[in-house]
């Protein structure tokens, strides 16, 4: 029997797609990667995922897991492989508020988990623009970051347990809800961030946290990135570490925002060199209950700290959200980042991380070098400044492969000189394979290849992603 | 040339020990494991560690890394292998307070890192009784936990980068200080907690945190474990998550403490069914600066919460430390745990984790079953209750291997029925190999063996630890 007919027998004809229906499931948010899968299959549960993988493994057919199609690195591209969509594994199996956990399947959309946690008075802190489409499996497979990493960590820090279908179709049960477990190697963190190259994540136990009972959110106008870092340290110190987000938007960002999304407005009448979106969150009654004697509301705390910074000239202006609508408006300007980046083509987008105190050094160095490489290029920066994570985009005058490579190489040179990473939160996929080859410690690459070969000797799991071609050990 | 003469040529005769001098380096805190290494070698730096491993690998001689000798599971035992001591790799290479990191070598003693962080106004939050002897390499290799995991996580959560000598002597450079890095598989977390079976950790980048500017510490007397969990939730809620430690000591613990260490005293005139040691820590000025208008000192916050709990009968009594000396005295009673456990022999010690709300179910079930298995056995419990981590020790009337196995099996049965782990924070080593074989998901064991075989095909790195014998994939 053919693979297609075997798959159809397994999951039913409605869930085996071919042609344009299959291709649609393989796109991502960049629009840069379009291939033709032999088919797309939508299993209903873990057992069906395992059975599909066994069918593919028997024929050594490549399996490419896909969930919310919000990737940015070509991680779900395939030409000739079998797309395995996790969208039907969409149950929230359990929420136990007293244990602060949610047991979710791979295809649960991130914002559904947000809502389910909120209904229990809790919070799932992973937060980024694509939350209305991104699914748990993709979030875990890329170890997604976002705007709250500063306070709560990346996806890896929010996961207690996993269920994984291995490349041979066996199911690996790591569905623990334990906060301590030293029974052998940390397999969970190996599968998280492996971008589907070691197996398919089908379910997970995620941590929930107490819902902040108050937020204080502001847009702040400053002169320099360095002043912004000083402000961050002041606010962390004044609040005892309550800063949840600290997002950096230089004038290049504000100008493009005004151009592409004029409907969103800008917080200041004149665009300042640097705009920071800062948000504090608090669960403690002494900061959230204004009727309590002695309580200092969180917004007052932020206001006092910003007033002092204004007084001494560290900042130029600030707008504090007074309502949830105003808060959402401040965030909408930040969350339009992907949209305003991809609206102009060709673009060369990056996702770099540097040590916390090196972000300015990166921007200075790359702006020094860029004119010699791409004379007419515009740039756009937006950064999770508290994590040292910058999304620096170059818009060259023309689409030219050699120019693209020279620009990426120049960026990588600067990043490497600062001991940074060319891949902070979006993953490697296809788009950063060259960077992996050029910049990653060769011994680390060898170890990764040895692990890949040990778990997937036939190389059927999302082949060609993450690891550049090279001899497996 | 013999291995000994090769090693002597490499590191000098003063650093190649044989006979009793070598054996001394192989002991651990339980005193249960004594073998005879062929030699012990003390390389001075990473290059020498790599050269030693290469010499051993060429002869397929087993290499057993050892650092502070405070292990509890036989992880550094060897009969016939080469002990590799990391004690001379003892430099703190760098501390960068503005980046909140310390770059340390494998042999740095934990308390030296505490002191070095404190000198910069910062804090390294990993905290346990053996901190004056335990070294960074052992701490990382066992993913050590301790008393502050509730707030700061285990060792894995406190490490940003690693340097590892692989089983073939190559050096793997993962010395990142980045807070986000998605450039390939998470090798760091694979080597952390691998107990030296995949390579030897020679250096690390550790996270530092702001030093708490105030602590509030108390001993609390309660009736039941369940009441203690209610109290923990109240205190977390009242403080906005500032509980750093929540240690559970039932009457069995207090009685043994009074017997073995009468000099340490007890907090209450009559031993209550449950004593809790609770500590809150705060960095925020509104909780730490009593001169600030509106500030609520942390101790007053704890006092108010405990007074309310006393009023409604949730707790029976409480003693709040008023001075640092009183605080140290409260901690000394908790930190005598290993000493009072190992003072009575034979003992069967365990290190289990259960879901946060299942600790009482574990104790009830095991106390029901134990009399039928070990009629005259005494027990001793001490727990990091906020992590669901219990150290439950059984003192059988006689040293009997079959009885020992029956007791361990009964404990494992209960733990498994609660979806817990037989190994929470001490590691597997030799002492929990049977538990790994009996209780770990067989697919997970297979994946671990495949990884071990891929990285260490000749099996020279700390052989026989962590993974029970079985076919490598």
TrEMBL record, chains A, B:
Keywords assigned: FAD, Flavoprotein
At the top level, the lineage of the source is Bacteria
FAD-binding PCMH-type domain residues: 33-211
Question: Which Gene Ontology BP terms does the record give?
Answer: respiratory electron transport chain
PANTHER family per the UniProt record, alphabetical: BLL6224 PROTEIN, D-2-HYDROXYGLUTARATE DEHYDROGENASE, MITOCHONDRIAL
Its family remark reads: Belongs to the FAD-binding oxidoreductase/transferase type 4 family.
State the name under which the record lists this protein: FAD-binding oxidoreductase
| Organism annotation | Paragemmobacter aquarius
Taxonomy of the source species: Bacteria, Pseudomonadati, Pseudomonadota, Alphaproteobacteria, Rhodobacterales
């Amino acid at each position: 029997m053919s693979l297609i007919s075997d798959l159809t027998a397994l999951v039913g004809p409605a869930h085996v797609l071919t042609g344009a229906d299959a291709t649609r499931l393989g796109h991502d948010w960049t629009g840069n990667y379009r291939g033709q899968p032999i088919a797309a299959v939508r299993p209903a549960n873990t057992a069906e995922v395992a059975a599909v993988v066994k069918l593919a493994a028997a024929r050594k057919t490549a399996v490419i897991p896909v969930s919310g199609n919000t990737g940015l690195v070509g991680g779900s591209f395939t030409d000739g492989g079998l797309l395995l969509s996790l969208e039907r594994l969409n149950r929230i199996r359990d929420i136990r508020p007293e244990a602060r956990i949610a047991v979710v399947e791979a295809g649960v959309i991130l914002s559904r988990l947000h809502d389910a946690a909120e209904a229990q008075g809790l919070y799932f802190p992973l937060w980024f623009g694509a939350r209305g489409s991104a699914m748990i499996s993709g979030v875990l497979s890329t170890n997604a970051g976002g705007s709250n990493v500063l306070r709560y960590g990346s996806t890896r820090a929010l996961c207690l347990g996993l269920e994984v279908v291995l490349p041979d179709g066996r199911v690996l049960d790591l569905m623990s809800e334990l906060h301590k477990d030293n029974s052998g190697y940390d397999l969970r963190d190996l599968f998280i961030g492996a971008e589907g190259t070691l197996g398919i994540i089908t379910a997970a136990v995620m941590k929930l946290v107490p819902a902040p009972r108050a937020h204080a959110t502001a847009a702040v106008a400053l002169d320099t990135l360095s002043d912004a870092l000083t402000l961050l340290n002041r606010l962390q110190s004044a609040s005892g570490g309550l800063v949840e987000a600290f997002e950096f938007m230089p004038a290049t960002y504000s100008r493009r925002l005004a151009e592409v999304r004029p409907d969103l407005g800008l917080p200041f009448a004149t665009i300042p060199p640097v705009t920071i979106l800062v948000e504090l969150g608090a669960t403690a009654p002494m900061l959230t209950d204004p009727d309590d004697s002695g309580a200092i509301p969180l917004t007052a705390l932020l206001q006092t700290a910003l007033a002092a910074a204004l007084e001494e000239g560290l900042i130029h202006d600030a707008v504090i959200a007074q309502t949830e609508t105003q808060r959402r408006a401040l965030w909408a300007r930040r969350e339009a980042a992907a949209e305003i980046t991809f609206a102009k083509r060709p673009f060369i987008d990056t996702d770099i991380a540097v040590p916390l105190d090196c972000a300015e050094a990166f921007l200075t160095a790359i702006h020094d070098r860029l004119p010699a490489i791409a004379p007419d290029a515009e740039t756009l920066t937006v950064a999770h400044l508290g994590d040292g994570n910058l999304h620096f985009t170059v818009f060259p005058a023309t689409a030219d492969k050699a120019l693209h490579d020279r620009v990426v190489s120049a960026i990588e040179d600067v990043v490497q000189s600062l001991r940074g990473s060319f891949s902070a939160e979006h993953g490697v996929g296809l788009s950063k394979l060259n960077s992996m080859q050029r910049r990653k410690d060769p011994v680390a690459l060898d170890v990764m290849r040895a692990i890949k070969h040990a778990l997937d000797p036939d190389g059927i799991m999302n082949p060609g992603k993450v690891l550049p071609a090279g001899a497996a050990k």
